[in-house]
Design brief:
Blueprint: E1 6-11, E2 14-18, H1 21-30, E3 34-36, E4 39-42, H2 44-52, E5 56-59, E6 65-66, H3 68-75, H4 82-94, E7 98-101, E8 109-112, E9 125-131, H5 138-150, E10 154-160, E11 166-171
């Protein structure tokens, strides 16, 4: 049996595929992409993950197939933090979580507990991605904590290192 692959078009920072049996099946099973009208739209990290897993091919506006490195090079123009975000995303997906963008929360991702799908319940965590060499002020840290608290989610920080490993820290408010 031939491997089923989603064919997407990457144009002007948008990754999209027509609505079809395969895109719907993958969405229903693992919540990759977002259906809008008659097309599925994918975030750059979702597309990169599916590309690396061999479940997606990405065509540029000229119809040329982009490999992992070419896609990263093009996508980093609009998302310079793509690789840090991707490493964190990939690790969460490998651990069985559904991870969606969280731009409206001012965070990198929202993360759903295992077995929970978006639309069935709310995300458990708001996730921020950082590299171990980045520096944050207490004000920036406090801001992240406030975002999590105001959205009634737990704060999760994914820290990447130079070897591509990710360490997660969950931060919680306490009342002494």
């Amino acid at each position: 049996m031939a491997k089923e692959i989603i064919t997407t078009i990457f144009s002007k920072d948008i990754i999209m595929a027509p609505d079809g049996d395969l895109t719907r099946r993958i969405y229903e099973k693992s919540r990759f992409g977002e259906l809008n009208g008659k097309k599925f739209y994918y975030s750059s990290v979702e597309a990169l993950y599916l590309l690396e897993e061999g479940k997606m091919e990405i065509l540029d506006g000229k119809g040329d197939c982009l490999n992992f490195d070419k896609f990263v090079k093009k996508a980093k123009k609009s998302d310079p933090r793509l690789l840090v975000r991707y490493l964190v995303y990939k690790e969460m997906r490998k651990r069985g979580y559904i991870v969606k963008t969280a731009l409206k929360f001012g965070a990198d991702f929202r993360v759903y507990d295992r077995g929970v799908k978006p639309g069935e319940d709310h995300a458990k965590w708001v996730l921020f991605c950082v590299n171990e060499k980045e520096h944050s002020t207490w004000y920036e840290f406090s801001s992240k904590n406030r975002v999590a608290h105001s959205t009634k989610k737990n704060l999760l920080i994914g820290v990447t290192d130079d070897e591509g490993d990710v360490t997660f820290y969950q931060i919680a408010w306490i009342r002494p």
